[in-house]
Amino acid sequence: MKLRYYVIRRLLASILVILGVVIFTFVISRVVPSNPAALYAGSHPTAQDIASAKRILHLNQPLYIQLYYYLTSLIQGNFGNSLLTHTPVLKSILDVLPNTLTLISVSMILAFLIGVPVGVLSAVRMKGWFDKISRVFAAVSVSLPPFWLALLFQIFFFSFLRLLPLEGYLDPNLQFSGNFHTVTGSFLIDSLITGNFTAFWNVLWHMILPAFTLAAYPIGLIVRQVRSSMIGVMQENYIRTARAYGVGQRRIEFIYSLKNAIIPTLVVLGLTFAYSLTGAFFVEEIFGLSGLGQYAALAILSTDYPAIVGVTIIGTIFYVAINLVTDIAQAALDPRIVLD
C-alpha cells in the first residue's frame, strides 16, 4: 500500500516536472531569434507562403495562445510536426530512439563490467599501486568531455592505427545490400533477430568506439562508488566473522561484501543511464550515428522548435521514469530503505 501511494505521488510530481520543462522549453525556443514560418514554408517562400505558415502555426497569436494549442495537442499525444520536414515529431523520435537506447545500454553494460571489478580490487588493495592507478583513471574518465574523448578515439584508433571504423553503424555495402531488414529500428537488435549475423558483428564493431566513449563517465563513477562502498562494508562485523570462519577471500570480496556494496552503485548506474541520453547527442553526432542525437542536433541548428521541445520531453520522461524505477529497485534490494 505504501509503495502504491509512493508511486502515485512520484508520478504526480513527475507530471508537474515534465509540464514545467515543456513550458520553459516552449517559451525559450520561441524567444530565440528565428523565422519559423519561413522554415516551415520551405525554400524560397513568398510573402503569401509565410503568412499562411504563420496562420497554420498560430504564430500570429499571443504566446500564451500558442502554448495553449501546443499543450492541448500534447495531451492528445500529438507533439506537432517538424518545421523542417513536416513529419510528426513523435514518429521521427520513435524511429531514431531505438538506436540511441541500444548505444546507451551497451555503454552501461561496459561500464558495469569494467567499473565493478576495478572498484572492488581498488578497495581490496587500498593504498596500493592498483588503487592509486584506478583512482587516477576514475578521476580522468569522469573529467573528460565526451566530445573531446570521441575525437581522440577517432584520431588514435582510425587515423593512426587504422584499426576501428570512423563512423556509422554499418558498412554501406551491408546496409544497402538488400539483406538488412528493419524491425525495431535498432540496427544491433534487428540484425540479431533477423539472423543476419554478418551485419550483427559489423554493427558491434562500429559501436566499439562510441560505446567506450559514452561509457567513460559512468566507469569512473562506478569505480569510485564501488570502492567507497566496499571499504565501508569490509569493516562490518559479518565480514570479520566470515574471515574468522575461514571463508575464501575472493568469496568474501565478490559475494558477501559486493552484495551490499552494489546497491548504491545500481542507483548511480540508473541515474547515469538517464544522463547518458543527453551525452549520447555529442557522441552520435561526432561518429555519424543515426539516432536521437543527430535528430536533436539538426533541430537545434535549424531552430526547429517542435522537434526541440519533443526531444526535451522524451529526455525528461526518461529521466523521471528511471529515477522512479531506481528508487523502487533500491528499496526492493535493501529492506532497510522505506519509501515514504
Description:
By secondary structure, the protein is mostly helical. The chain has two domains: 2-75, no CATH class; 89-301, Orthogonal Bundle (MetI-like fold). The protein has 14 helices and no strands. Helix 12 runs antiparallel to helix 14. The chain starts with a helix and ends in a 7-residue tail after the last helix. 34% of the residues are buried. The model has no long low-confidence stretch (mean pLDDT 83).
Quick summary of this structure?
This protein has helices at residues 2-31, 36-41, 47-56, 63-75, 89-124, 129-143, 146-160, 172-175, 187-193, 197-233, 237-244, 249-287, 292-301, 305-333. The chain has 340 residues and is mainly alpha-helical.
Percent of sequence in beta strands? under 5%
Radius of gyration computed on alpha carbons: 24 Å
Examine the secondary-structure arrangement and name the CATH architecture of the largest domain.
Orthogonal Bundle
Which structural class do you get from the secondary structure elements?
Answer: mainly alpha
Helical fraction equals over 70%
Q: What name does the CATH topology of the largest domain carry?
A: MetI-like fold
